[in-house]
Amino acid sequence: MCSTHTLGFTVALTAVECQGGPECLDVASYDDRVVAVASVTGYYRDRETDIWMICSGCVNVEPGVDVGSLKMPTPEQGEALYQARIQRAKDAKALYEKTGEVTYQPLVDPKAADPDVGSLAGLPGPVTWSWYGPWTMKGFENRYAVMSDLDHFGYSTVAGVTKLTKPTLVIHGDNCMNAAAAKRHYESIPTKEKKLIWDNEISHFQHYEQPDVVDRNVGEIAAWFGQAKV
């Protein structure tokens, strides 16, 4: 996912997505154009988080239900779902290389996946649907190439952040995606010029779409960049 073109592509984007922050930490570890870096409530790419993301699609969240009380699939179920998804991706790539046919499946599906069978959708379940669902009514093409899972799951931000020497700001919290992974990544960053803002009152998606939260984050990031040494 990372290349010499990543930063140029990123600065041209007008949308927000949770993989951008951690990938920017990775890019900052090797691209000298980056003077300082910040990541807001990201999808920190390691195997545990990838499996956690797949398992979260099996949780049937309903209005008024405490998310913390919901039961996730077991580690064994999560690993099996992960391996099944990798196999589907390998099969899809083999078909493409043989015939040129691209296998597509829905990217999002409001129905929670079965913890034993999984789902053919890339991001199943009510949690991700609450964010992506409205996009399906605004011209968003709800599909993804199944073989792309090989590239997706083959990428990790773990190695890059362990080499990060630029001033680094991480904004996250217990109610954001896999908080444990965010803490692991932050702790592995070797630079002493780093800051962690941990807010348990704000949820993952609030960081993206609630104006006062966005404004506060922008202020924190601007202040952090302002004190960075060029």
Automatic annotation (TrEMBL):
This is Alpha/beta hydrolase. InterPro entries: AB_hydrolase_fold. It comes from the Eukaryota. Residues 1-20 form the signal peptide. The lineage of its organism: Eukaryota, Fungi, Dikarya, Ascomycota, Pezizomycotina. Keywords: Signal. The keyword Signal applies.
